[in-house]
Design brief:
This protein is about 65% helix and about 0% strand. The protein has 19 helices and 2 strands. Strands 1-2 form a two-stranded antiparallel ribbon.
Length: about 600
């Protein structure tokens, strides 16, 4: 039942998509019975880019994009009545120049080429675990090139405009370059990519700025492939440009990604062969693990790329890449430490309290990881501070508003990282390191207190915020005093002096806001808006705006009612009885006594008269 419903839903979505695509022309001119006066046009690059972004390639899902191309091909053939036979017999057809009365015939071939290319990219992802699929991958790329060449030949017709002809040439050159690239024919790939880039650059210069953006982006995407081909041909300078492009963009995509990562690893491995030791905090440690050597050699390049990042998104991606590499390197060192402990069952007498070289190397790598995490969180905090200051200007945005609590969380993580730095083995007796970490802790505590105070200001807790501002000033002055005493530089830390100025200004604003809030609270109080909790029966003489009276839980009277004092039942005390003289009863007592034993027995058994 669920499968049938899902199939019906897909059919409905397909029909809706077909109607939209068929109503919208595929190029600058709409479809017609005859050839248009200015020639048929097809926005090849724009069509494929929009289709790729909307149908899976934004997330690298080539299988989804391939399915979309197949469905669109079927819809185009049905709309143009260009069917390949029927369900019983296949009859091959080709788009010829005589059929070029509608630009959707060009779109038909374009979608066929895109389907073959997307299938090749899907097989490229799967070939990492199944190498045999590489043969099928090359077959699909050859088919994509064949379809691109057919498109170029059709576009040579006089019925097609000049812009579409150039785009078809660039499209064919791109697919041919991708095929040669995968076949490792670097010279042919270089020529094809160069031709493709030249055409897109000319198109970008020939149109307005809005139209040129798409062509310029495509030319920039091709540049890394060209540099890789140049390096493989023999240009040794191209590797430096490739590494800088990879670091600036945070990674590459497509066929180049895996090859570039392998190439950079091989280059660093050659350089790592000459690296034998590393010095940190006055101690030299030998480095025998190749993975650690490669990571330490690339550390400076990664830090330089982070410092030169153009935007926060790129910087965040580079930070994540560096932290991932650092975690993998630390795991390799941990495995070596376990092997060393197994091989040495009993510690040497002289080294029982000394940290081994591998443990000290592990501490160094952990220091790099924690320091990078602190820098990343500090970068994120700066971006959030800017967003917090610009928030009144962007209140209409649908995005979640930035709050001081977000910054508090970041500074909590930074303080936790600093605590972990103090616990690294081998640095317990390093007083300068302890003082440096202690100073950083005070700085970040000051900023954390500042944003906690900001969060209290938002909920109008003036006294709590004022106390926290005083605590910020205390931390800041302590930082300045310790920095001067221990000669520790504050260059890499957030500016404490700027924080002091900002806190003093916020304190004055806070006091003014508290006074205004107090005055407003007295001025706005009116008998018509005060709720004292009394029921309606007790405040009939006063008019109060109480919306609960029209609800289901209207408070009319106290129920159950309260106890009230009432007079109790009077108590009577018979005082006169004490003064009454009772008559004597001796004569009756004597008569009963004379009755004797017989009367007593009769009285017991009830025979008395």
């Amino acid at each position: 039942m669920q499968r049938a419903e899902r199939k019906l839903t897909e059919q409905r979505l397909g029909l809706m998509e077909e109607n939209k695509e068929n109503e919208r022309p595929a190029g600058p001119q709409g479809p017609g019975k005859g050839a248009p006066r200015d020639g048929l046009g097809l926005e090849i690059l724009q069509i494929i880019k929009e289709s790729q972004q909307q149908h899976g390639l934004r997330h690298g899902d080539f299988q989804r994009y391939r399915g979309y191309c197949s469905r669109r091909l079927r819809r185009l053939r049905k709309t143009l009545n260009f069917k390949m036979g029927n369900r019983h017999k296949f009859t091959g057809k080709k788009v010829t120049e005589e059929l070029l009365t509608d630009n959707r015939y060009l779109l038909l071939i374009l979608m066929d080429a895109e389907r073959a290319w997307s299938y090749a990219m899907q097989l490229k992802q799967e070939s990492n675990t199944e190498p045999r699929k590489r043969f099928h991958l090359l077959s699909r790329l050859r088919k994509a090139v064949k379809r691109a060449e057919e498109l170029e030949m059709l576009c040579e017709s006089e019925r097609v405009d000049a812009k579409t002809k150039l785009e078809a040439q660039a499209y064919r050159a791109y697919h041919r370059g991708m095929l040669y690239f995968e076949q490792q024919d670097w010279k042919e790939a270089m020529e094809s990519f160069k031709q493709c880039k030249t055409i897109y650059e000319k198109l970008a210069n020939a149109f307005t700025e809005e139209q040129a953006v798409l062509y310029s982006q495509r030319a920039e995407e091709i540049a890394p492939n060209m540099r890789y081909c140049a390096y493989m041909i023999g240009d040794q300078c191209a590797i430096d440009e490739l590494m800088q492009m990879r670091l600036r963009s945070g990674g590459t995509e497509g066929l180049l990604a895996e090859k570039l990562e392998s190439l950079i690893t091989q280059t660093r491995a050659k350089q790592a062969a000459t690296m034998g030791e590393v010095e940190w905090r006055g101690r030299t440690v030998p480095v025998r693990i190749d993975k650690v050597r490669i990571f330490l050699l690339g550390l400076a390049d990664n830090e330089t790329a982070i410092a030169q990042a153009e935007n926060e998104e790129t910087k965040e991606r580079l930070f994540e890449t560096l932290l991932s590499e650092c975690r993998d390197t630390i795991q390799a060192v941990r495995e070596e430490i376990k092997l060393e402990q197994k091989q040495r069952d009993h510690p040497v007498d002289g080294d029982s309290g000394r940290v081994t070289n591998l443990q000290y190397l592990h501490s160094y790598l952990s220091f790099i990881k924690l320091s990078t995490a602190i820098k990343r969180n500090e970068s994120m905090a700066k971006a959030l501070q800017k967003a917090l200051l610009q928030q009144p200007q962007s209140e209409d945005d649908n995005r979640r508003a930035t709050r001081p609590q977000d910054l508090i969380r970041l500074y909590d993580i930074i303080l936790q990282n600093l605590v972990e730095l103090l616990q690294l083995p081998g640095l317990e007796e390093d007083k300068s390191f302890q003082n440096e970490i202690g100073l950083k802790t005070l700085v970040y505590k000051a900023y954390r207190c500042f944003f906690i105070a900001q969060s209290y200001v938002l909920v109008k807790k003036w006294s709590e915020a004022l106390v926290l501002y005083d605590r910020v000033l205390k931390y800041a002055k302590e930082v300045q005093a310790k920095a001067g005493t221990n000669s520790i530089s504050l260059k890499d830390l957030p500016d404490v002096g700027e924080l002091i100025v900002q806190v003093n200004a916020e304190k004055y604003n806070l006091q003014a806001a508290a006074i205004l809030d107090t005055n407003n609270s007295f001025e706005t109080v009116s008998p018509s808006q005060v709720k004292d909790g009394k029921p309606l029966a007790e405040r009939l003489e006063n008019f109060v705006l109480d919306s609960t009276l029209v609800g289901k839980q209207a408070k009319l009277v106290h129920f159950p009612p309260d106890f009230q004092p009432i007079p109790c039942k009077p108590l009577f005390f018979d005082l006169a009885l004490n003064h009454v003289a009772l008559p004597p009863l001796e004569d009756r007592v004597e008569q009963k006594a004379k009755s004797g034993l017989t009367g007593y027995i009769k009285g017991i058994f009830g025979f008395r008269s």
